[in-house]
Amino acid sequence: MRDIPTSSPSNPQSNRPIAPRLRSARDVVEAYNLIAWNQCDLDLANELLGDRVIRHGVGSVTVLTHDEAVARIKDHHAMFESIRFDVRTIVAGVDGEHAAIMYDATIVLDDGTVSAIGSMEIFRVVDGRITEVWNTGHQEGSWA
Asked: What is the pTM of this model?
């Protein structure tokens, strides 16, 4: 996805980029959580996040610019010794734009304290990029 050829085999003289195959909503959400977040891969986050990301909570909406959405990953990694998401389930919507996850996250604070949280999120992916996220917040502990 990072390299875009500038000619096609059928027309090697063409200077128009070949459109890359877009990742599915499920693939985007999986890569976002397991690679961009778990490995703090900001280059991948840059690819996967839209020009703006609307984060919906119960009774609130936060609109992040692309740069703010990418920085959110970096900032969270700076707050903790480590943070790791274990995605237990990913469900792809039939519309091709939505995917939902159920996850547990393990957070290690700088003093070594370990905390576990669980939550669910629904993502909207347009043209291979995350544009909206719905989250009701998290609870301490792991899914039973």
From this structure: 0.83
